[in-house]
């Protein structure tokens, strides 16, 4: 099949959405099953954390490599290889009998899956005419935004009903459908065989990204910069990043095409996408804990409440796909960023007594805001680039969003832990054995063991509730701070 031959576009779209969703769901589905895996594999909490850490670090390293591979060998072999190996390694993760095995298979899974998100978007842009790019980007974006939302709920349900192994087995039917769909629809094209591989640049960038991701993932566990390990990881990540930039500026064909960053739309889109990664993915980690630990919802009930966000995301994708051809892209991006910030501000008002309809309302607004910024931002990033630059640009855009998500989640978890400790100490100061009025209000006697335990538990819940509010307010501030960057994007004629 030639590069210009028609392809069954509906089948191609469905297959790419399945491949994208398979990867994004797997980025969060394991988090819920981790305690069960820890017991089954007889691992400590720190050892079991490597099941997630290995996947994140290797995915970060392999994402920029996906851009070079797609350019050098063409999209068809790389996409088929990625889906096939990701599906096979998922099955091996489910069959693993020891911690070492599952960490090894998670490394393979992360390396194979890193190409799925960026290259699937580029594939759709290549196979659809320009006037349909907005609509197809909206459809593809459903897999990117909805996957992390449904991942924890699906993982919890599979773990409770069957076993943690089904969090990996679920990828088999999805992977097979995606593989055969892509095999039947991706046209055979020739890659750029003249593109050399800059091994030195790749090594420098891989070390910088790997160490940075390792620092973010292990920072809270090791008390951040009080730990020699975290200081070393941060220091050498900065050194290797400097070496990568210096090397790339002095080489004719570097690993990453630096000409991309001279495009104002692309550079501005990278910065805004970083902020969107913080705003969209951090709440997916915080909300399940808030609903289950503080408000007493079961995992299934918490999943139902957060599912509203996924529903509004789908509606927002369809709406954005239509509006992007009729409205100034900057207005849509600004509206999406503002909606995300407002939803986070609403979450910052949550308390222990917040009713379910307020949780659903904030989720609906956030689900609507994410695609209103995501779709036009993707459209703006690729709109001023040549077709030959899109493969590498797609990988960098995905990398920017993923790093934003990692930074946001790490900072949110760190702030949550530290703020909870601070608030607990502050609240406890106001309750002493001599505070007779306060003890009476709480219905307990000073020194009573049961009453004291209940009050200590309530202080902990109140302290955590304030900490969650601080987290959401900070995320809202970071999100709204990205608005001025939207002005850097050049206006494109709608349609």
Mind explaining what this structure looks like?
It contains 19 helices and no strands. The protein has 495 residues and is an all-alpha fold. It folds into 3 domains: 1-196, MFS general substrate transporter like domains (Growth Hormone, Chain: A, Up-down Bundle); 198-254; 258-495, Growth Hormone, Chain: A (Up-down Bundle). Helix 7 (133-161) packs antiparallel against helix 13, helix 12 runs parallel beside helix 16 and helix 12 (264-294) packs antiparallel against helix 18. The longest helix has 40 residues, at 390-429. The radius of gyration is 23 Å and the shape is globular.
In angstroms, what separates the terminal alpha carbons?
Answer: 30 Å
**Which secondary-structure class do the elements indicate?**
mainly alpha
What is the chains' assembly state?
single chain
Overall residue-averaged pLDDT value: 79
Poorly predicted regions are 1-6
Percent range of helical residues: over 70%
What is the name of the CATH topology of the largest domain?
Growth Hormone, Chain: A
The first-level CATH class name of the largest domain: Mainly Alpha
Strand content: under 5%
What is the total domain count?
Answer: 3
- Helices and strands, in order, run as HHHHHHHHHHHHHHHHHHH
CATH level-four homologous superfamily name of the largest domain: MFS general substrate transporter like domains
What would the principal axes of the Cα set say about the shape? globular
- Rg (C-alpha, Å): 23 Å
How many helices? 19
Give a quick account of the main beta sheet: strands, pairing sense, barrel closure: none
CATH architecture of the largest domain: Up-down Bundle
Give the beta-strand count.
0
């Amino acid at each position: 099949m030639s590069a210009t031959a028609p392809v069954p576009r509906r089948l191609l779209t469905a297959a790419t959405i399945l491949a994208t969703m398979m990867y994004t769901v797997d980025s969060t589905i394991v988090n819920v099953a981790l305690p069960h895996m820890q017991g089954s594999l007889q691992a400590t909490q720190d050892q079991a954390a490597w099941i997630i850490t290995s996947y994140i670090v290797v995915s970060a390293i392999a994402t920029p490599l996906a851009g070079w591979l797609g350019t050098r060998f063409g999209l068809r072999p790389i996409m088929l290889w990625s889906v096939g190996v990701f599906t096979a390694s998922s099955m091996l993760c489910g069959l693993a009998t020891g911690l070492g095995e599952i960490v090894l298979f998670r490394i393979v899974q992360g390396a194979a899956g890193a190409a799925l998100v960026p290259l699937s978007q580029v594939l759709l842009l290549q196979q659809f005419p320009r006037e349909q790019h907005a609509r197809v980007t909206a459809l593809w974006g459903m897999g990117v935004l909805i996957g992390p939302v449904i991942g924890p709920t699906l993982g919890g349900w599979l773990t409770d009903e069957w076993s943690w192994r089904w969090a990996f087995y679920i990828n088999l039917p999805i992977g097979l459908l995606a593989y055969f769909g892509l095999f039947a629809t991706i046209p055979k094209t020739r890659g750029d065989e003249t593109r050399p591989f800059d091994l030195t640049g790749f090594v420098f960038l891989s070390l910088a990204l790997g160490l940075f991701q390792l620092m973010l993932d292990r920072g809270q566990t090791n008390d951040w910069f009080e730990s020699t390990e975290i200081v070393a990881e941060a220091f050498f990540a900065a050194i290797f990043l400097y070496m990568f930039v210096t090397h790339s500026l002095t080489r004719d064909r570097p690993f990453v095409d630096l000409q991309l960053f001279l495009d104002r739309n692309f550079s501005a889109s990278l910065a805004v996408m970083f902020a969107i990664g913080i705003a969209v993915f951090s709440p997916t980690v915080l909300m399940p804990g808030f609903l289950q630990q503080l408000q007493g919802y079961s995992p299934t009930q918490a999943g139902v409440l957060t599912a509203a966000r996924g529903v509004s995301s789908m509606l927002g994708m369809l709406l954005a796909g239509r509006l992007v051809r009729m409205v100034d892209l900057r207005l849509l991006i600004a509206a999406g960023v503002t909606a995300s910030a407002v939803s986070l501000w609403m979450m910052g008002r949550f308390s222990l007594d917040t009713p379910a309809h307020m949780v659903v309302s904030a989720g609906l607004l956030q689900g609507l805001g994410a695609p209103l910024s995501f779709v036009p931002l993707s459209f703006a990033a690729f709109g001023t680039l040549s077709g030959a630059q899109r493969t590498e640009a797609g990988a960098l855009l995905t990398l920017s969003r993923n790093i934003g998500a990692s930074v946001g989640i790490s900072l949110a978890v760190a702030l949550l832990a530290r703020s909870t400790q601070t608030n607990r100490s502050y609240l406890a100061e106001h309750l002493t054995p001599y505070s007779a009025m306060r003890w009476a209000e709480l219905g307990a006697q000073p020194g009573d063991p049961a009453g004291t335990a209940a009050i200590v538990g309530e202080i902990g819940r109140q302290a955590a509730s304030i900490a969650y509010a601080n987290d959401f307010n900070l995320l809202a501030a970071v999100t709204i701070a990205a608005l001025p960057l939207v002005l850097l994007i050049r206006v494109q004629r709608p349609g």
